């Protein structure tokens, strides 16, 4: 009986923590008892701990400390470690977010143990099976409550035969996080810190780069091609590059400007916490990225984005030319970036309610009313 009204919420990788923060705070407001389980997929302080601290969510109730490994090993190990936690706590609902290995691993445990499963960011599809995240989206087959960020997600789920009563278009919790932490983000001093020693005027105009997809960083030829394009762009404006650990390992094997001294305007930094990353992104003229979440954040902030992939699971970002898909074509990346930076192409963002910053409240409201009907 003790666990009957318990909700376990799972985080594993950096983007999960950002998405979970507004959910945690909204659930608290709605009186829903949310307990956070961290799988330990990301374990560095800069990839995990700093997010808990900055976003003011309590350190996880349980840390499964799974660490790194191959995809199958990591997914299986999370399942193995999560099962006894579920058996002991007997939650009435397990809530997972996004599309990382931790998401699908815990979704499988929920389904196998007959626990109701809610998936936040359901329905997104890149239709590219070579991406591990697309495989992980099988989570939607298992989920009972599917919370969707944009209309394309609803269409995808309906086509896949998900019963309409399970699908809830609630908007994007990434917009909630931007709204919730907006004041703190505006106080970030990261730009001043980063420009120290580089320029007396700071960064009047700059780009931000993030890169971590296996397809871009695991093949040295692709990574070299992208980095050559970035070097060319950095001849025009400074490029700030917070380097993901996966990319850091790979960059060592390709020749880059890192270590060339004060000449280059390509500024490598360690991974940034949420507040500083958004602080940097909001002032940027352009984002170059292969991250799904960063594409969306740029869209919401009105920062033009060039995506170094052939597909996106977030078609809304493409509307009005806010985001363009360029793959890893060196010439195209340079051409498109310089066109945007020269002001020759203006991107326009329409306002959509999906990014109004109230998605987590809608999720809490739907779960509250289904609990009242005896659903959880
Ligand atoms: C994972 C997610 C991806 C998400 C990304 C955000 C999957 C399949 N991928 O990719 O969807 O966009 O997180 O960052 O779940 N490492 C560290 N410290 C850490 C974590 C990782 O050094 O705290 C290193 C490890 O050497 C590891 C590598 O980074 O092998 C990759 O980490 P992993 O979690 O496997 O995948 P990501 O590339 O981070």
Task: Please characterize this protein's 3D structure.
α15 links the parallel β11 (286-289) and β12 (305-307). The radius of gyration is 20 Å and the shape is globular. It has helices at 14-29, 49-54, 71-89, 101-112, 132-136, 139-142, 151-159, 173-180, 182-186, 190-195, 214-217, 220-234, 245-251, 274-282, 292-301, 330-341, 359-372, and strands at 7-11, 34-38, 62-63, 93-97, 116-122, 145-148, 167-169, 207-210, 239-242, 266-269, 286-289, 305-307, 323-325. By secondary structure, the chain is an alpha/beta fold. The strands form 2 sheets. The chain has a 7-stranded parallel beta sheet with strand order 3-2-1-4-5-6-7, sandwiched between helices. It has a 6-stranded parallel beta sheet with strand order 10-9-8-11-12-13, with helices on both faces. The protein has 2 domains: 7-171 and 357-372, Glycogen Phosphorylase B (Rossmann fold, 3-Layer(aba) Sandwich); 184-354, 3-Layer(aba) Sandwich (Rossmann fold).
Quick recap of the structure?
The protein is α/β, with parallel strands linked by helices. It is 43% helix and 14% strand.
Order of helices and strands: EHEHEHEHEHHEHEHHHEHHEHEHEHEEHH
- Ligands bound, unique: uridine-diphosphate-N-acetylglucosamine
Physical arrangement of strands within the biggest beta sheet: 3-2-1-4-5-6-7
Q: Which structural class should the secondary elements be placed in?
A: alpha/beta
N→C terminal distance: 13 Å
The overall pLDDT, averaged over residues, is 92
- What's the CATH class of the largest domain, please? Alpha Beta
What is the C-alpha radius of gyration, as a whole number of Å? 20 Å
Count of structural domains: 2
């Amino acid at each position: 009986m003790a666990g009957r009204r318990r909700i376990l919420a799972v985080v594993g990788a950096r983007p999960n923590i950002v998405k979970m923060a507004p959910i945690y705070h909204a659930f608290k407001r709605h009186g829903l008892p949310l307990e956070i389980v961290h799988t330990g997929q990301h374990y560095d302080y800069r990839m995990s701990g700093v997010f808990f601290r900055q976003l003011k969510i309590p350190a996880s109730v349980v840390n499964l400390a799974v660490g790194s490994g191959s995809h199958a090993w990591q997914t299986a190990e999370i399942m193995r470690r999560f099962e006894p936690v579920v058996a002991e706590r007997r939650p009435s609902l397990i809530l997972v977010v996004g599309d990382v290995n931790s998401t699908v691993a815990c979704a499988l445990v929920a389904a196998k143990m007959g626990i109701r499963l809610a998936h936040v960011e359901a329905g997104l599809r890149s239709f590219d099976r070579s991406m591990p995240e697309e495989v992980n989206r099988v989570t939607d087959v298992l989920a009972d409550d599917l919370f969707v960020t944009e209309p394309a997600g609803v269409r995808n789920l309906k086509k896949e035969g998900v019963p309409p009563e399970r699908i809830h278009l609630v908007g994007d919790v990434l917009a909630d996080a931007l709204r919730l932490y907006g004041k703190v983000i505006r106080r970030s001093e990261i730009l001043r810190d980063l420009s120290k020693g580089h320029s007396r005027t700071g960064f009047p105009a700059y780009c931000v780069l993030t890169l971590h997809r296996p397809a871009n960083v695991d093949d040295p030829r692709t990574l070299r091609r992208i980095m050559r394009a970035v070097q060319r762009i950095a001849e025009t404006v400074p490029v700030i590059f917070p380097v993901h650990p996966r990319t850091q390992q790979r960059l060592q094997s390709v020749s880059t400007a890192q270590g060339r001294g004060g000449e280059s305007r390509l500024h490598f930094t360690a991974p940034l916490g949420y507040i500083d990353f958004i602080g940097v992104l909001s002032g940027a003229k352009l984002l170059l990225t292969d991250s799904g979440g960063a594409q969306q954040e740029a869209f919401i902030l009105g920062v033009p984005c060039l995506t170094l992939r052939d597909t996106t699971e977030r078609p809304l970002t493409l509307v009005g030319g806010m985001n363009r898909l360029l793959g890893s074509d060196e010439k195209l990346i340079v051409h498109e970036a310089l066109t945007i930076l020269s002001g020759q192409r203006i991107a326009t963002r329409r306002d959509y309610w999906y990014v109004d910053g109230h998605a987590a409240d809608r999720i809490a409201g739907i779960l509250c009313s289904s609990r009242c009907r005896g659903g959880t």
